[in-house]
Design a protein that fits this description.
The structure is a homodimer of 202-residue chains. Helix content of chain A is 76%, strand content 0%. Chain A is an all-alpha fold. Chain A has 2 domains: 56 residues, Homeodomain-like (Arc Repressor Mutant, subunit A, Orthogonal Bundle), CATH 1.10.10.60; 141 residues, Tetracycline Repressor, domain 2 (Orthogonal Bundle). Chain A binds a DNA duplex (30 and 30 nucleotides) through α1 and α3.
DNA sequence: ATCATTTCCGGACACGTTGTCCGGACAGAG
DNA sequence: CTCTGTCCGGACAACGTGTCCGGAAATGAT
């Protein structure tokens, strides 16, 4: 028999992807990740509970993979702002913030899942802390560059970067519920105004 | 027999307070609230497991009361700022922020407990969201008053209030680890600068 | 001082979840 | 065709939960 079009590993990855997507969807529908039983998770994913344990060590394992999957999106979209931070261009800032907001909007459930899991599972929390640390660090560098270029006010680079990143993170979780999607632009405007006022506006 | 010096209700409240304090202490020592069994919780508090259920509906009930307690602390210390928000006085703002930071510093474990519980227990999350909404609402009113008095910039009151409150919450929770207590003043300075730049500085 | 009430304890119970293991079915790989 | 990987369903022990009970102890009222 010739190797079928879908290899074993492909199907394996596809299934695990299905489980991740199902978990994300459940959280998006308002379920609490911590209150989800493996039974329910497996059922929605179309596999049996025992099969779940073949693919995942436990629920925390799932959350850790979700964390990694989500990290790239945020980091990638943040690059736009970091690279133009030394130009005091409010329009560019607004565009960059809008892009970040979009990531939270589309993958918001994944972030919520990760946050909920991090509160319970220390290894997930470590994974998340590492991500935030990287974001903060690169933002700090951007601020230092902007200050060197004379485009930014003399704020404390390290602390300001941390506060702004945590602010964006929290807003992404708490204020971008799909329910009131009308206000998303307004939220992006407000974030832009706060960052602009803090970093650039003389 | 004359009523003893401590009435029933007094002792009841005292015991429940002891349980709250014990839980807070356990979290302060690095325990995860979600992984704490009622057995352990009761044991540390010096009561039996069955007695715990006489005083608390469940672990979530304990967390909800903790939530009310800590947010009440926040609300009380925030009053100073809300009442003077229409005066563009940076020193007053800095003092108010410092007071808020102090609450997070001293009751940090309680906030951690609430966060951990909210991640697992939807009712705790609801309680927290509701109480935060109150903080946001009063901040929004303060902004509207400040704008009416001509002291503040024309920001969106509702969204800006929400973003700033969530920013403070996240910073208090993530950036005020007792380990590096030296940076707390710097954090308060940065928060003050951000809020000042956003709301007041022309 | 006596008596009723409240409070606490320890133990039991049914229930749900977890993580592990197994035998058997089935399809893809060699 | 045979072997191997994958999945299922079911079982299991272990643990935590929330509820209930009987009895002991402390407390308040008479």
């Amino acid at each position: 028999m010739p190797p079928s079009r879908t290899t074993r590993k492909q199907r394996r990855d596809a299934m695990e992807q299905r489980v991740l997507a199902a978990a994300e969807q459940l959280v998006r529908d308002g379920e609490n990740f911590g209150e989800l039983s493996v039974e329910r998770l497996a059922g929605v994913s179309g596999i049996s509970r025992s099969t779940f344990y073949v693919h995942f060590e436990d629920k925390g394992d799932l959350a850790r993979r979700m964390t990694k999957a989500v990290v790239a999106d945020l980091e990638e979209v943040s690059t736009d702002w970091w690279s133009t931070a030394d130009q005091a261009d409010r329009g560019q800032l607004r565009t960059a913030i809008g892009a970040i907001i979009d990531v939270y909007r589309h993958r918001g459930a994944a972030f919520t899942l990760v946050s909920q899991a991090a509160a319970v599972d220390e290894s997930v929390a470590d994974e998340l802390r590492g991500l935030m640390r990287r974001l903060i660090d690169r933002t700090r560098q951007a601020i230092e560059l902007g200050q060197a270029a004379g485009a930014m006010r003399p704020v404390e680079p390290r602390e300001t970067a941390a506060v702004l990143i945590w602010m964006i993170e929290r807003v992404g979780h708490q204020m971008l519920r799909p329910s009131d999607s009308g206000g998303h632009d307004k939220v992006a405007d407000v974030l832009t105004d706060i960052i602009w006022s803090t970093l650039y506006r003389v």
